[in-house]
Amino acid sequence: MTFSIVGRCAETGQLGVAISSSSIAVGARCPWLRAGVGAVSSQNITLPALGPLILDELATGRGAQEAVDRVLARNGYSEYRQVAVIDAQGNTAIYSGSRALGIHRALAGEQCVAAGNLLADDIVIDAMVMAFQHSEGSLAARLMRALRAGQEAGSEAGAVHSAALSVVDDLTWPIVDLRVDWAEQDPVGELEKLWTAYQPQLQDYLTRALNPTLAPSYGVPGDE
């Protein structure tokens, strides 16, 4: 019910996830990130707990694949799960259980891993990896291009209705956390609109958080 791209910026160390699904509010359940540790997409018949548990394992210094294997081994129904992981060094791990839904595929690339299920075609995942690897700009922008490439390559077999984009840097909170919880049509397009609106303000929100004395005006009534 989902297709996703999990990636890392080799220059900045940022980690991120872009994801879309036929299910409502995919951003509330599937992407999990921790600055300096890793990023996880826990999908298919989703167990949200897998995300933070895998990040906990990565934080101890375990490798990406070992972290996935250990967490799946102690949680039931692993045959229903699909997981894509990248750690802070760019190492990746993927898992698709034997009962992953429909056409499913996972593929690791350079500083990225993409995964999906109930796909229109397995080339969706290849298109996402290729788009990420051949894109320039910020990590968030590259993740969005990869998600759009997956959409254009066929997306899910049916309509998708939600999408999300999340990126962490070196702070304890995400520097980007945008969600389209439900759209009748083209949630990826709606997410692109959100990113286009948010991107010019991203640094302003960081400045407001870290040094309010330098914070630019919000430009709303009452804000002198």
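The above is record 1. Record 2 follows with the same two-line structure.
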Amino acid sequence: MTDDTHACGMRVRREVLGDAHVDRAEAAKTPFTADFQSFITRYAWGEIWTRPGLDRRTRSVVTLTALLANRHWNEFEMHVRAAQRNGLTDDEIAEVILQSAVYCGVPVANHAFTLAARVLAETEQRDRP
């Protein structure tokens, strides 16, 4: 993968996750984690999130479901914020979680609702004048 893939990936990563998150991740990068951070930027954000087959809203739905199913809660919360940035409404995020309850289990969806509600409330509070 080229430097162009890295630059494109960084642009998309910032657009989806926000500058604050990416800046924190970059600041926390160490020689031990640098190759992994580069891999994420080039592969996930530069190769996959830029493919034309799905729009970002759909990619967010898929990502939320996968993270919920695998109980990756920190990433789930991060991608609730990303889903909002990608245009999903609070009601659509709730629908994703409700749909996931059928296939991933009620207890896991219950926990996802708790986490998503907290993230959405934080976002609402932050966005108030």
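The mean pLDDT is 95.
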